[in-house]
Amino acid sequence: MTLFKNYVACLCIGLFSLMSGHSALALTKSTGILTGKVIGISDGDTITVLNDKHEQFKIRLAGIDCPEKSQAFGNRAKKTLSDKVFSQNVKVETRDKDKYGRTLGIVKIGEEDINQYMISEGVAWHYKKYANTQPTEEADRYAKAEEIARLNKKGLWIQDHPTPPWEFREQNKNSSKK
Known about the structure:
By secondary structure, the protein is α+β, with helices and mostly antiparallel strands. It has one domain (30-161): CATH 2.40.50.90. Helices cover 40% and strands 25% of the residues. It has six helices and eight strands, in the order H-H-E-E-E-E-H-E-E-E-H-E-H-H. It has a five-stranded mixed barrel with strand order 1-2-3-6-5. The longest helix has 19 residues, at 2-20.
């Protein structure tokens, strides 16, 4: 009977999460905490962290997407991230791996959420495509940070119609096929 109750409870949680648009598994999935020093900045949303065992980890900032290097504000995004975290000790709340093998995570210096900082500075979008994999409170904070940056015309929001990086990548992918 206990096995049946557990099954029903899991089924109910699964149905609830589907109806609410959030994955219960994704909301609670955390692969752990990684600490170390930032030794590299690839672009506005990817860093390399060296831990105390001298292991390097490529970290993709979760929940955000920055302009590509060849896109308007791409270099500014990289510089903003570099100025904030390069050579700093950070804590990464790891989430998962992306399709390129990078660790997805929330990067923090102290209690400051650097992912949210990048959005607030107007050099990143809240990556709404993956908002359903974020805890609701975090997704709401990121969405609000983007809204404020837009209203204040901060960073890339000074442009009338900035091209989101996912659209820029798609346009470049399609143009290279021609």
